[in-house]
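Hello,

Following up on my earlier ticket. Below are the two sequence lines again, exactly as submitted.
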Amino acid sequence: MSLEVSRPAAPAEPTFAAVAEDHLDDVYGYLLYMTKNWALAEDLTSETFEAALRHWRRFDPRRGTHRAWLLAIARSTALDWFRADARRRRREERAEAGELGRERDLAFGEGFSPELEEGLRALTAGEREVVALRVVLDLDGDETARLLGITVTAVSTRLHRALAKLEERMRHHDVA
Amino acid sequence: MTSPDLIHELTATRPVAPTALRARVREITTQDAAPKASFWPQLRLPMRRFALVAVPAAATLAIASAGVLGVARSDDNVAALRNDFYAQESSEKLLPQATAPQPNVGAADQSSGSAVAPTLDRAQRISATLTVEVPDSDGVSRAAQKALDLTESLGGHVVSANVATGDQGSAALVVRVPVAKVQEAIVQLSALGRIVSQQVTIDDLQENLDRLQRRERSVRAQIALVVANLENESLDATTRAQLESRLRTLRQELRGLRRDTAATNAEARMATIQLSVVTPGVLGAVPVPSRLDRTLDEALNVLVWEGVIALAIAIVAAPFALLLFATWLGRKLYRRREEDRLLAT
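Thanks for your patience. The regenerated structure is below:
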């Protein structure tokens, strides 16, 4: 008499397409908060997934989740854009055409109330970033700290300051 | 608006990727997910994982090479020790030829220790130096006591005895035993422990003894002649005085010759044995290390040299490594500040 013992099937590794589908909204939302511009956020989201596809084989699940990995690439992509934008602005300022580059700041996105959009615009990119990660995407403190390269305490402080500032701006808008 | 309301609104208005973007990303994901992999990216390892492999591998390699070299060099040492041994043995064989006609017995010739055979019909000065090793300090005391008992039983006596106990006990005894029993004494003293060294020296005294006896006979004859001359009553006072003076001198010389002869005979009757009893590690007792000990010693030497070389490389490389680290740190700090500045807008 022989017994056949069936081994439990190992969990199949998700494909890049599945991972992208699962976390597209997270990446887009994060970049939208970072850039305040839906069109730019869409472009950077595409760039992020292109870069992610290139590095897909180097993803190590022991070092973090797919979402954290994609957000790290998104952050790097956004910072690269900020750097390029800063250089472009400096060139334009030298050419006395500094206002041209601000056209892309006009549209934040759909679904936001006017007061929330105005409040978010008043925040810095760093403040919007931490609000996006901790509140909108619901990352925990450790994951956010690792992504931003700062301590958990610094994350809490930055988030508290950003929410207070946002609350203040929105209260001011209500009064007005 | 309160914080809970704000957070509720923020989560409620969570951005959703537009359909066009979703389609664009789907298009990206349908591309070949396995990009042309170059050779180097496949070999890239995280620093921590690399260190986890490289450091034990380097340590294993260092220890293995030390072990191999240790084994190889211990073989060389066997040959060297053998050469040293033969060199020592031949030098010991040369020594007694210069001092005595009898061959002496070296440490390596333990079994022939009993082959020392003094020539009893000739006067000889026999001296032996013997070093035996016992396992511990208690063994030193026991061996010293046995040596004293043996000396007494053979009709000899102790000239000096110095016994020290402790972690590394040792004893130094000088005993004299009758020449007829010296062979037996050496054999029994050698049995007190492991023989580390043994040397027997025999000097011939017979020639000196014969010379003393010849001189004594001559002096006696001269004394007899002087005494006969003094019996002549016709001698004048001056000659008598000279003969009497000569007689006194000859008698004095005769006493000296008798004393020397007696001393030489006494020296030839008793042999002197210097016995050292030592424990392992005491100076003078250098045990031949085992093959394993030699291998370990050589391996340790190789490891020490490897360490010295590694330290030298580290000393040379340290400034460059420090410079690289400072550059890396500076770049990191610069980027952090730049990021902060960019995100502050």
